[in-house]
């Protein structure tokens, strides 16, 4: 069996070549042949102008003729594997010095010095005495990169270095790889990270069935020069990320679709046309809906069915969704239709894109969904000129906005009414917004928690890396590392060592609690991103116009998103709960060692007393919001739909809960900054000082009682408008 056929590839000094292709296309085998971990049956491999000597085995296959040459040339090639391949019985430092010391015969002290420099570069010097099992996947991969660099290779080979990592760990490995590219390292990278291939590489190679199908610069390959097969590959492998949806929904980025997406949409619509023309019965195309699925409709009734579907399903109640929430739902719906499995027309998707990109925002009631249906029905009505929309800062009739924007009310055809109301775009789009908020708050909670810890003179030994490494949780390692970065240089904490044996749990268990919340967040990201890139219509239109299938199934059931939102709601409620316990200690003179309620003249001043009440009230509300919606169930549509996800409700209550946590963390920020005033700026760690200064830009020190609500609002605005990473350092 031929795995590689007719490969011709040259890498020059300073090249960064990304090798793309489907699984089984030969990418990893090519890399292993370059490093002579696999021996090609024919052809030559040259490194630095030196051709590897081969000989023919008696059975006909090639072998390396000179083992010493192989050892020497391999020392010029650094290899980073998908599965890390660290020696489990060696520490991080020992892993890195093994090759230079024992293979290159270098002085051990010099190897240790070099290894420490490399580990510092990849951000892991403080873990040099850890064993691989004590590290997260991202940390292990960074050690593997340091180990490869320790051999001073001329070329770095990366074999899918991020594919085994959780989403939040991918970035830290790509950051190291990007820095290597910026310093001029020669790199060959087998990857599925399209952003790296597009933005860091200077050449992209696409492999198909053991051959190089096409290659060129990223601009050419991702533009018009890539082969048809490559364009199909990138369109099918392009993952829409929640963060990209947020850019459109909240920040006004323009959404466009690729040519291949439009082709898929057109082909699926052609299938629907063929079914209607042939008079073949297919659910949702020419039948009634739900419990009425056994009623067959004539061709003349199909457009009316779609219109009626929108009218009858648009019966939501309650306050309307915020503009970013409606836009998030629109984005998720367009992503769903872009797969070309729904049978909707290009014109329908173009109308949705026009609403989005022209900022015509349908007024969508927030309540009334047991999973999907009502929210998208209201959006569908706006498309056809019914209902109200926000347009140019005003609420106007949809028909008026369409006319002023140069659009014509859309006339839905066969199946399109059903496709508009079906699927999981509502819960998925809303969940993406909640993820954006939750990620920001997870980072801020570490900052405000560190400020409270310092103000209460906590014992930093609780965050010892060796201790935390005994729990192999990526979230715990992440929060622990951030807390150490924020606090390690605090004069106040250094002077407080030993003043107590241990702190209250709300202080010393921050890495464990914040870390558990981070781990739940990572799980939610995976679930929501999977759903965002799924086909969630029913029925689905599969195949080609010549050989098609219409399949009734249950992809619109949003159980995975509903569960993810419910679990993340519990996690975020806990994040708020532990913050409230910390801020309670700040205002309590019995445990804080600070003036009562953080005011210099208590009695005539109540200080921050009632701010803690507010945080406690929000925590109580969050206990209700954290109750899992997915455990509720109701029967609808005449027993036809007898198990419901209630996923849109899960996402909506998660957004509300996270908003409450915004305020709880902001109150802790306010109180912790006030508490630190009593210790003096010179006693603060660099990280907490930056955070304190950041708040003092908008909120003055509390001297006498004043209207407190505006201060809380300013603190909320600061943590909503700014990411916390810059404060950590």
SSE diagram, text form:
Layout: E1 16-21, H1 27-34, E2 46-47, E3 50-51, E4 54-56, E5 62-64, H2 67-74, E6 77-80, H3 92-103, H4 108-121, H5 137-149, E7 155-159, H6 167-182, E8 186-190, H7 194-199, E9 203-208, E10 211-216, H8 218-221, H9 228-237, H10 242-251, H11 259-278, H12 302-313, E11 317-320, H13 323-337, H14 346-357, E12 361-362, E13 365-367, H15 374-383, E14 388-391, E15 394-397, H16 398-404, H17 416-421, H18 425-455, H19 465-468, H20 474-487, H21 491-495, H22 505-508, H23 510-532, E16 540-543, E17 548-551, H24 559-587, H25 589-592, H26 609-625, H27 647-677, H28 686-696, H29 709-721, H30 725-728
Parallel strand pairs: 1-8, 1-9, 6-7, 7-8
Antiparallel strand pairs: 2-3, 4-5, 9-10, 11-13, 12-14, 14-15, 16-17
């Amino acid at each position: 069996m031929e795995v590689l056929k007719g490969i011709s590839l040259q890498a020059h000094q300073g090249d960064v070549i990304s090798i793309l292709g489907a699984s089984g296309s030969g990418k990893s085998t090519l890399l292993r042949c370059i490093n002579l971990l696999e021996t090609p049956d024919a052809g030559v491999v040259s490194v630095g102008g030196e051709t590897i000597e081969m000989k023919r085995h008696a059975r006909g296959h090639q072998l390396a003729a000179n083992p010493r040459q192989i050892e020497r040339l391999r020392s010029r090639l650094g290899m980073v594997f998908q599965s890390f391949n660290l020696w489990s019985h060696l520490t991080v430092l020992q892993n890195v010095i093994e090759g230079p010391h024992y293979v290159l015969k270098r002085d051990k002290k010099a190897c240790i010095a070099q290894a420490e420099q490399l580990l510092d570069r990849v951000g892991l010097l403080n873990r040099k005495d850890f064993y691989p099992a004590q590290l997260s996947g991202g940390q292990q991969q960074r050690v593997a990169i340091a180990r490869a660099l320790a051999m001073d290779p001329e070329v770095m080979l990366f074999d899918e270095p991020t594919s085994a990592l959780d989403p939040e760990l991918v970035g830290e490995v790509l950051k190291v790889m990007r820095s290597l590219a910026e310093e001029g390292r020669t790199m060959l990278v087998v990857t599925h990270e399209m952003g790296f291939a597009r933005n860091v590489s200077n050449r992209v190679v696409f492999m198909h069935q053991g051959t190089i199908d096409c290659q060129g610069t990223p601009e050419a390959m991702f533009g018009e020069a890539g082969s048809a097969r490559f364009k199909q590959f990138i369109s099918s492998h392009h993952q829409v990320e929640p963060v990209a949806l947020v850019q459109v929904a909240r920040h006004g980025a323009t959404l466009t679709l690729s040519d291949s997406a439009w082709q898929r949409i057109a082909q699926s619509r052609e299938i629907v046309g063929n079914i209607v023309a042939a008079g073949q019965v297919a659910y949702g195309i020419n039948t009634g809906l739900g419990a009425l699925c056994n009623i067959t409709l004539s061709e003349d009734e199909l457009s009316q069915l779609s219109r009626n579907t929108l009218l009858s399903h648009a019966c939501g109640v309650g306050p309307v969704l915020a503009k970013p929430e409606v836009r998030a739902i629109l984005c998720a719906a367009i992503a769903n239709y872009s797969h070309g499995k729904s049978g909707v027309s290009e014109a329908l998707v173009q109308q949705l894109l026009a609403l989005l990109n022209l900022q015509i925002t349908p007024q969508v009631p927030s309540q009334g969904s047991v999973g999907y249906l009502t929210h998208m029905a209201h959006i569908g009505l706006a498309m056809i000129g019914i209902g109200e929309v926000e347009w140019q800062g005003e609420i106007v009739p949809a028909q008026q906005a369409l006319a002023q924007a140069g659009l014509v009310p859309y006339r839905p055809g066969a199946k399109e009414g059903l496709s508009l109301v079906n699927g999981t775009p509502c819960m998925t789009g809303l969940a993406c917004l909640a993820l954006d908020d939750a990620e920001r708050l997870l980072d801020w909670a570490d900052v405000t928690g560190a400020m409270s810890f310092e103000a209460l003179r906590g014992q930093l030994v609780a965050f010892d890396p060796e201790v935390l490494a005994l729990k192999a949780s990526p979230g715990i390692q992440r929060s622990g590392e951030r807390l150490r970065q924020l606090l390690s240089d605090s004069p106040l904490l250094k002077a407080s060592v030993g003043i107590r044996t241990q702190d209250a749990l709300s202080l010393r268990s921050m890495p464990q609690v914040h870390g558990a919340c981070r781990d739940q967040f990572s799980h939610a990201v995976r679930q929501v991103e999977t759903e965002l890139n799924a086909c969630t219509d029913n029925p689905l239109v599969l195949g080609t116009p010549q050989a098609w299938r219409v399949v009734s199934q249950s992809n619109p059931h949003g159980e995975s998103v509903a569960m993810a939102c419910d679990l993340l709601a519990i996690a975020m409620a806990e994040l708020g709960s532990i913050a409230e316990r910390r801020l309670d200690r700040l205002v309590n003179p019995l445990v804080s060692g600070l003036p009562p309620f953080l005011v210099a003249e208590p009695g005539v001043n109540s200080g921050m007393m009632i701010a803690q009440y507010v945080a406690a009230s929000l925590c109580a509300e969050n206990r209700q919001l954290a109750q899992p919606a997915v455990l509720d169930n109701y029967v609808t549509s005449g027993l036809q739909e007898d198990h419901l996800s209630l996923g849109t409700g899960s996402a909506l209550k998660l957004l509300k809960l996270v908003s409450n946590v915004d305020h709880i963390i902001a109150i802790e920020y306010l109180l912790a900054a006030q508490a630190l005033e009593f210790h003096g700026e010179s006693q603060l760690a660099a990280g907490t000082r930056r955070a304190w200064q950041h708040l003092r830009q908008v909120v003055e020190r509390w001297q006498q009682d004043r209207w407190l609500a505006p201060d809380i609002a300013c603190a909320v605005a600061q943590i909503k408008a700014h990411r916390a990473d810059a404060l950590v350092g």
